[in-house]
Write a structure and sequence with these properties.
547 residues, alpha+beta, Phosphorylase Kinase, domain 1, Transferase(Phosphotransferase), domain 1, Jelly Rolls, 3 domains, 5-stranded antiparallel beta sheet, 9 helices
Length: 547
């Protein structure tokens, strides 16, 4: 901003007599930002001013001001203090605490911190936000620039207000929750704050975003417990139904993870003495008996170790149950899709070629209930979606311990909803020196006739790695390429991009593969469909009649 566009410093000083050492440091649209010092307690502060006539356009409407005034009354060690909100002369202003510590956005300048320290930092901010959530005040704009971190690993501090409420969601980068990016939620919710804190925890633990880490669990990148994995993956789940709905529940799981941040290891059990010492029975008066305290400590250590073992077994059992449930749901959706395709073919109008020979199908007395997961947007009457048939195998390039919200089976469950809160996602990470890919194997003995392929990809999810350029390939049994085509997508305001490929001529394919055109670009799919006519078994020709 040029000096000509800035507000006169004499005017600012006269309007804010409670401040001294006022200096202009920057601007954001009509907002100008100053550093200053409170005369009352010499505390460093930030002064943000917006012309009142433009405050509503910028997002500082009356509702925002009322919410900000409520925040002024709150104070917590996890939140930067907001001292004053109001109007002065022609300006609307906010005076908040100014922290000299680095921001999370400058993570590369900070030393690596332990998992326990990262958990404590996020818990501290979550506890501060909980005091606001209890008053129905939700932040909705948490970004790395609003989180301060002490270099010595002390408390993290969060500015408890979205100071740029009118800025588009892209201004929040990866910290914008999927439902906010896509417009599925138009007002701030607790889940948006939980999502942002979960991302902050992931970055503090791994020093990477989930996309940079290939959506891997933290435990596959650093030494941490299953409790840490569970808290992180649930906090950043793109499905709001699976994410934490309350900060209190998130804090409870953070406490469990803090109690066991690194999992079961030797450090949790006191080391045995180098030489067995025999306690003296004739202790002198006043001499402390260390074994009086050591034996209970050993008992507690053994109990904690046994508890960790049981907990890990419970986690494995829960994961197995979840995978089994997903398989059952996929089978049910596949059967529903097959039934819908049969009904579509039964009611499809006969073509001129076979109109005379067409035999009308009996109309059932009652129409079967349509399953919610049946594809609607791209349904092809009279065609079969071979991706949903039994025996189909789904594979992907990175077989890592993926976050629970993503997985190869997600992209063939028939869900083509345009709402990110409903849609399922399959994502592949980036493997060094290899191209990310996602494949559907129809089977050697069940090659399918493919006439059309439809690919659904997330449009605005930068966290998941939106596919800007990718290739679709159809293979035969010997991995010979039957057909291929490269596609490019462009950013849009929709939550899902739909790419269709109608083949010039049908091919009988063994497998379908979606491949990234850039080795450093992961894939993020919401649905893959491969349509073609229902295969009819070959029947022998009737023998000629004897003369």
């Amino acid at each position: 901003m040029s000096a000509d566009d800035s507000f006169p410093m004499d005017q600012i000083s006269s309007l804010f007599p409670q401040l001294e050492n006022i200096q202009l440091v920057g601007a954001k649209g009509p907002q100008q930002i100053f550093t200053a010092t409170l005369k009352s307690n010499f505390a460093p502060v930030m002064l943000r001013v917006v012309p009142t006539e433009e405050a509503g356009i910028f997002g500082w409407d009356p509702e925002f001001i009322v919410r900000s005034l409520t925040i002024v009354e709150q104070s917590h060690q996890g939140l930067l203090r907001v001292y004053e909100v109001g109007q002065a002369g022609p300006f609307t202003f906010i005076i908040s605490e100014h922290s000299p510590y680095p921001r999370l956005a400058d993570m590369n300048t900070l030393p690596q911190i332990s998992p326990q320290a990262a958990l404590n930092l996020v818990r501290n901010m979550a506890e501060g936000l909980l005091t606001l959530h209890r008053k129905n005040i939700f932040h909705g704009g948490i970004t790395p620039k609003l989180i301060c971190l002490r270099e010595d690993g002390g408390d993290a501090l969060l500015l408890p207000i979205n100071i740029y409420p009118a800025q588009p969601p892209v201004d929040m980068g990866d910290f914008a929750s999927p439902e906010w990016v896509t417009g599925a939620e138009t007002t701030f919710t607790p889940g948006m704050d939980i999502y942002a804190l979960g991302l902050a925890l992931y970055i503090l633990l791994t020093r990477k975003t989930p996309m940079e880490a290939g959506f891997a669990m933290p435990s596959s990148l650093i030494k941490c417990s299953d409790a840490v994995d569970s808290a992180v993956s649930r906090a950043i789940n793109p499905d709001t139904r699976e994410r934490y709905r309350d900060l209190g529940d998130f804090i409870t799981d953070l406490d469990k993870a803090i109690a066991n941040p690194a999992g079961r290891n030797a450090a949790s059990i006191p080391p045995p003495p180098s030489s067995p010492a025999i306690p003296a029975l004739n202790m002198q008066k006043g001499q402390s008996n260390i074994y009086y305290y050591l034996i209970p400590a050993l008992i507690v250590g053994i109990v904690l170790t046994y508890t960790c073992i049981l907990y890990k077994k419970d986690v494995v059992r829960m994961r197995n149950d979840y995978n089994e449930q997903v398989q059952k749901e996929n089978n049910a959706k596949a059967e529903a899709a097959r039934q819908a395709n049969r009904d579509a073919r039964r009611h499809a109008p006969a073509t001129a070629q076979n109109a005379a020979a067409a035999i009308p199908s009996p109309v059932p007395a009652t129409r079967p209930a349509q399953a919610p997961a049946v594809p609607k947007v791209s349904a092809e009457p009279g065609k079969v979606n071979w991706s949903l048939q039994p025996g189909v195998k789904v594979r992907q390039s990175s077989n890592r311990n993926m976050l629970g919200a993503y997985g190869p089976e997600k992209a063939v469950d028939g869900n083509t909803s345009s709402r990110i809160s409903d849609v399922s996602i399959s994502a592949t990470g980036v493997v060094e020196g290899k191209t990310a890919w996602f494949g559907i194997d129809f089977g050697r003995e069940t090659n399918r006739t493919i006439e059309k392929v439809v690919i659904y990809t997330p449009a605005n999810l930068t966290l998941l790695g939106t596919m800007e350029k990718f290739k679709v390939i159809l293979y035969g049994n010997d991995k010979n390429v039957l057909a291929e085509k490269t596609f490019s997508t462009t950013p849009s305001e929709k939550s899902t991009n739909v790419t269709s490929w109608k083949l010039d001529a049908p091919v009988k394919a063994r497998a379908l593969r979606v491949e990234s055109a850039n080795p450093s670009q992961p894939l993020a799919l919401t649905e893959v469909e491969a349509y073609g006519p229902e295969d009819v078994e070959d029947t022998p020709a009737p023998a000629p009649a004897e003369k």
